[in-house]
Write a structure and sequence with these properties.
Elements: H1 3-14, H2 19-25, H3 30-39, H4 46-54, H5 58-70, H6 82-98, H7 110-118, E1 123-127, E2 136-142, E3 152-159, E4 166-168, H8 190-199, H9 201-204, H10 223-238, H11 243-251, H12 257-260, E5 266-274, E6 280-288, E7 294-296, E8 299-311, E9 317-330, H13 331-340, E10 342-350, E11 353-363, E12 368-378, E13 386-387, E14 391-393, E15 395-398, E16 410-411, E17 414-417, E18 423-425, E19 429-437, H14 442-446, E20 448-455, E21 458-465, H15 467-470, E22 471-472, E23 475-481, E24 488-497, E25 503-514, E26 523-526, H16 533-547, H17 551-564, H18 569-581, H19 585-596, H20 603-615, H21 619-633, H22 637-649, H23 653-666, H24 671-680
Helix pairs in contact: 1-10, 4-11, 6-7, 16-17, 16-18, 17-18, 18-19, 18-20, 19-20, 20-21, 21-22, 22-23, 23-24
Length: 683
């Protein structure tokens, strides 16, 4: 197929769903099929359509439709949605005006499609009473608001062979010949153009190119016009960031209903570092695209809650945390805050491995939510040589306060500040920060660090430094002026070379350079880390190892936290669990027993103590701890089953059956337990 043929095929197909999608949408309830295949067909992106077809309830479809329109609302702060109102006005107009006398509904006609997507033209010129010229219309558009389209252009419709609906004219596929009733020969025949110029000179001046003023060296049709026709139907979709749709599908069971239609885009920056004691840390910065505040008494407030989750390659949850950031600004600060935005940042430790980091953000004041997901690899300390995460920022100032390890984006004694989308302007100096691991000792003296800026994989800037010039230890700092770069997308690539110039390790990261000027820098809010952060991080590492099934590593990490604060119930419970899994039930019991003396002991302490006693064969004591757990935490099927097992081990068959039957009343789908109960009851 020629390029022209391919473009024309795209024109015909771009506005309508694929055949398989139509077939699948046919099973939708009529209301939603009409919305998908008629009302939203020219607006919906492939991602949005795919997500909508995966929804399994009318309630979730209604939430999606509400979110769909909200993403297109030009003024989301007001109750009206001007975009939605205008779209349905165009749809109704197209059906009323262009469906008359047609075998198609108005929205399916070529004029209807263009009207719905682009709106009313600035001007329409008709050619319907010129002898030997088929009825033709020229629609003139200017400043459509779509950046991918020319500032001004024409759209031509004609009645093919003089009959039927007006159809979209293509300079390449149709040509002047198609507009003349008696034309013969090829569509691009010079004679056809001359005839048309005599019959309708204004029409002839526009049939080779739809873009006014485009210089044509010959009478050949404009390929730019073909691209324009294809781009028209893509333009409404290109303006939309459709990540919200997948977020709705992914988090529909994790956020409250009132949040689900109010998705906000979230920019994120992640950086992995290694502390002085070898602990790997994940630094994250997130920035909501919109900051909605509630105003009262001269104060403007929002409350953001975060939920972060690490999962391994098998989808198991390795670590989960919650954070909150309350915000309050006076009226004088609101304008600046809205102009510069807000960035929240924090840091947490992580064990080696490959993970998926899912992050959910909620503004409880406005009932908005956003999310991001990213793959993270934490290298094993013994691996190497390797270049760690690349930080590309606009500031890397020496930090003169606080414990370096506990502050987000504080690396090697410097406080790093970066844009969550790695954006710069040409006047910026980029600060490059990275760590290098597993290098031979000789590298420090004879090695080199090369940093290349690449455009389309071709180096445009380069610098080389010795390790001593760039830093010390594992952490290195470079600076790169961006003054010579034109606006566009680039990649930074850092390569470590040995003394002979051989490559040892390499890592790259993308960034964007915008037009010269000042890029507004956001206000940065950092998570507060207490003085006992080291013990909290040991506990967090212990939990991660437990969830990965690495009991020995978990035990060592939990022990470090517990030994510093044996009175801490979380530390003690975590350490006891690791000991239990290692077969040290006696020690696990000894860790928890002092804490259980408190009548308000935490449920996890009582559960852990019961489990340890049960493992030791101390069934009566285990039952007592389990009963205390139920009194504190409420009904728990697992604990009930443990109590039944303890009674059974004591030879108390009736007591065991009584407890297990309670468990089965709560959840009858415990087939193995039901079989055991039936067997003991003689059924």
């Amino acid at each position: 197929m020629s390029r022209i043929g391919a473009v024309l095929l795209a024109i015909g197909m771009a506005a309508l769903p694929a055949a398989g999608q139509v077939a699948k949408s046919a099973v939708l309830p009529e209301k939603y099929r009409i919305w998908l295949d008629e009302e939203a067909v020219f607006l919906i992106t492939p991602t949005e359509r795919d997500v909508f077809l995966k929804l399994d309830s009318d309630r979730s479809r209604e939430i999606f439709i509400e979110a769909f329109w909200k993403q297109r609302d030009p003024v989301p702060e007001t109750p009206r949605n001007e975009f939605r109102e205008e779209h349905y006005r165009r749809l109704q107009y197209a059906n009323r005006m262009y469906g008359r006398g047609s075998r198609l509904p108005g929205w399916k006609t070529d004029r209807g499609k263009i009207y719905i997507v682009l709106g009313p033209p600035r001007n329409i010129e008709s050619f319907d009473d010129i002898n030997n010229v088929h009825p033709t219309e020229i629609w003139f558009y200017q400043d459509t608001g779509f950046p991918t389209l020319p500032v001004a252009f024409n759209i031509i419709f004609f009645k093919r062979n003089g009959f039927g609906d007006y159809v979209l004219y293509s300079p390449a596929a149709d040509g002047p010949r198609s507009l003349i009733a008696t034309a013969m020969g090829d569509a691009r025949d010079e004679q056809a153009y001359r005839d048309l110029r005599e019959l309708a000179p204004n029409l002839a001046s526009q049939v080779l190119s739809l873009i006014p003023g485009e210089r044509r060296p010959s009478r050949t049709p404009s390929l730019s016009s073909e691209t324009l026709l294809a781009d028209i139907f893509d333009s409404p979709r290109r303006k939309i960031k459709d990540a919200y749709a997948e977020a709705l599908l992914r988090y529909k069971d994790a956020v409250e209903v009132e949040y689900t239609a109010n998705y906000i885009d979230v920019g994120a920056l992640l950086y992995v570092s290694r502390s002085g004691d070898g602990t790997s840390l994940i630094h994250y910065a997130v920035s909501p695209a919109r900051l909605t505040l509630a105003s009262s008494g001269g104060r403007n407030e929002a409350f953001f809650s975060f939920n972060g989750r690490l999962t391994d390659v098998d989808g198991r949850t390795v670590y989960q945390f919650e954070k909150s950031f309350p915000l309050s600004f006076n009226d004088a600060d609101v304008g600046e805050i809205r102009a510069t935005s807000i960035v929240f940042q924090d840091v947490f430790p992580c064990v080696p491995g490959r993970f998926r980091f899912d992050f959910l953000l909620k503004n409880t004041v406005s009932k908005e939510f956003g999310s991001f997901e990213a793959a993270i690899e934490i290298p094993d300390p013994g691996a190497g040589p390797a270049v760690g995460s690349l930080f590309l920022g606009y500031s890397a100032e020496t930090a003169a306060f606080g414990p370096a390890e506990a502050v987000p984006f504080r690396i090697g004694g410097r406080q790093l500040l970066g844009d969550v989308r790695n954006r710069f302007v040409a006047a910026d100096t980029m600060r490059i920060v990275f760590q290098a691991f597993g290098l031979p000792e000789a590298w420090t003296a004879g090695g080199r660090i090369r940093a290349d800026v690449l455009k389309d994989s071709v180096p445009v800037l380069s610098q080389t430094r010795t390790p001593a010039e760039a830093g010390a230890g594992e952490t290195f700092f470079l600076e790169q002026s961006l003054r010579e770069l034109k606006p566009g997308y680039y990649d930074l690539e850092v390569t470590l070379l040995d003394g002979a110039g051989r490559e040892l390790a390499r890592r790259g990261a993308p960034f964007e350079v915008g037009l010269p000027g000042r890029l507004a820098r956001p206000r940065v809010l950092s998570g507060v880390t207490g003085a006992d952060y080291a013990e909290e991080w040991d506990y967090a590492l212990g939990l991660q190892y437990l969830n990965l099934g690495k009991s020995s590593e978990a035990g060592r990490a939990m022990a470090r936290a517990y030994e510093k604060h044996p009175e801490n119930e979380r530390f003690a419970s975590g350490y006891s669990q690791a000991l239990y899994l290692l077969g040290e039930s006696r020690k696990a019991k000894d860790v928890l027993l002092p804490l259980a003396e408190d009548e308000n002991a935490a449920p996890e302490v009582l559960a852990g103590l019961g489990r340890a006693c049960q493992s030791l064969g101390e069934f009566r004591e285990a039952i007592a701890h389990y009963r205390r757990y139920l009194a504190r935490a409420g009904t728990n099927i697992e604990i009930l089953n443990y109590i039944g097992t303890c009674h059974y081990q004591l030879g108390e068959k009736d007591a065991a059956l009584d407890v297990w039957n309670q468990s089965l009343k709560i959840n009858p789908r415990q087939e193995r337990l039901k079989a055991l109960v039936d067997s003991l009851a003689g059924k």
